[in-house]
Amino acid sequence: MFVKRLAKTFGFLSAAAFAVGIGSAAVGQQTGEDLFNIPDDITILGPANPNARKATAIVNGQIITGTDVEQRVALLLNANNDAKPDAEELKRLKLQVLRNLIDETLQIQEAKALEMAVSAEEVDQTYQRLAGERFNRSPEAQDAYLRQIGSSAGSLKRQIEGELSWDRLLRRNIQPFVSVSAGEVNELYERLQASRGTTEYRIGEIYMAATPANRAQVEQNMRQIVQQLQQGGSFVAYARQYSQATTGVVGGDLGWIQLAQLQNPQLEAVTADLQPGQLAGPIEIPGGFSILYLIDKRQIGMADPRDALLSLKQISLEFPAGTTEAQARTKADAFAQGIQTIRGCGEADAVATKLGAEVVTNDQVQVRALPEALQSALLELNIGQSTPPFGSLQDGVRVLMLCGRDDPESVSGPSRDQLMNNLEEDRVNKRAQRYLRDLRRDAVIEYN
Predict the structure, then answer these.
(1) Residues near 205 by Cβ (< 8 Å), separated by ≥ 6?
(2) Which residues have C-beta within 8 Å of that of residue 276, sequence separation ≥ 6?
(3) Residues of the chain with CATH 1.10.4030
(4) Thinking of the domain 199-299, which architecture would CATH place it in?
(5) Phi, psi for residue 359 in degrees, rounded to 5
(6) Where along the chain do the CATH 3.10.50.40 domains lie?
(7) Rounded to whole angstroms, how far apart are CA atoms 125 and 139?
(8) What is the mean pLDDT of each run of 10 residues along the chain (448 residues)?
(9) Contact 413, 196 (CB under 8 A)
(10) Which residues of 196-228 are buried (b: 16+ CB within 10 A; e: fewer)?
(11) Dihedral pair phi/psi, residue 136, rounded to 5°
(12) What is the pTM of this model?
């Protein structure tokens, strides 16, 4: 189970989602000016520039080297499809990775201080399972792969040690003291039953605080993050590295919520217009900026059509090597006309043979497992009908023909036990953030 959580992101930190009862962590945050009464017009006394520090530190006597930072950055970039950030983006990334390494070091040190240290054997066992189950490699092959991308087995094992240490600390120092009453669960259960049929959204959020003094810079940083995400970056990884909301530690996942739980009319309106897989932002809200990612949406207590299992026939026509674009278009038009003559799945194989096409049958295809564009098309088909042709010069042209559909049964929503577990997890995560904040406050940290 731990390996499954560990591999949720290539940040390898747990990515459990909050399922109910939480709104945006970005709303209602108190700014530094409110708390400390800092004037807008200030003068820096002395030449020190914290932004000019090298990305190394000593945490309670334990050194974090530049190599530690570089190898962890390599892991993150690899998780984001070997992204190539510019110099400024890379600088910000290294500083954030250093902060994460400091937190990780504090967690490991705390576990050791409380005689709960994670042994080298435990780390090695987890590393071996991760290599096999997540990457389908032997430990030796995983070692070589990490070296190839500029990281190391030691860097990943340190991250594993930090996760195991923190998990152990939470189980002893947090979880036993979190309780949820039956009354709370019943009240939430009744509210959910009353809201059956209304839409629920699973949202990812990246939040960064802003003040009048740094507003422009924060907005620019957020726009650069959006560009990286649009180019294929991992939302979970970026949320882990950059988000200042409490949900940052779980990849920005707010879990399944209703729009009112966002507690911000602007965020509610933006989210209502999103389709699963779409991004929005940066959106300016009180205290900072947010980037929203709609992971999924559903109707409470109702069956989701995308959970239907389809029986499909894929009819495909490949283009020979050397086919020009004009020739491919002609062949595709003839293919489309031939498909229109098929009267039901029973004729598909015979017509495909005449067209020189191939047929592949699959009787267990879940709608949501298909690309978003095909999901909508298939849900509107009747048995025996096919999608419009799709493809490319390299891949050829193909259609999907619907031969059967098993619609999902109506769902009753989460049980009371599930709701209790979700509420407990929410409270554990909030207390965990306070615990980590206390460790930071008490630490002696020297920057080089």
Answers:
(1) 24, 25, 26, 239, 243, 245, 247, 252, 254, 290, 291, 292, 293
(2) 294, 295, 296, 297, 372
(3) 2-23+49-180+430-447
(4) Roll (3.10)
(5) -120, 130
(6) 199-299, 305-406
(7) 10
(8) 37 33 36 50 49 67 91 84 75 85 93 94 93 89 92 92 92 89 85 74 89 88 89 85 78 82 82 88 88 84 76 88 86 88 87 88 83 79 86 84 79 74 83 89 86
(9) yes
(10) eeeebbbbbbbbbbbeeeeeeebbebbebbbeb
(11) 55, 45
(12) 0.53
Task: Calculate the CA dihedral of residues 256, 258, 171, 249 and round it to 10 degrees.
Answer: 70
Name the token pair of 246.
Answer: 């409490």
pLDDT digit string, tens, across residues 376-402: 788 888 888 888 888 887 888 888 888
Per-residue pLDDT at 413: 62
Residues 6+ apart with CB under 8 A from 248: 206, 207, 239, 240, 242
What pLDDT score does 231 carry?
84
Largest CA distance in the chain: 84
Half-sphere exposure of 125 (CA within 13 A, CB side): 7
Pick the CATH number of 2-23+49-180+430-447 from 1.10.3470, 1.10.4030, 3.30.70, 1.20.120: 1.10.4030
| Token reading at 289 | 């900026």
Topology of domain 305-406 in CATH is Chitinase A; domain 3 (3.10.50)
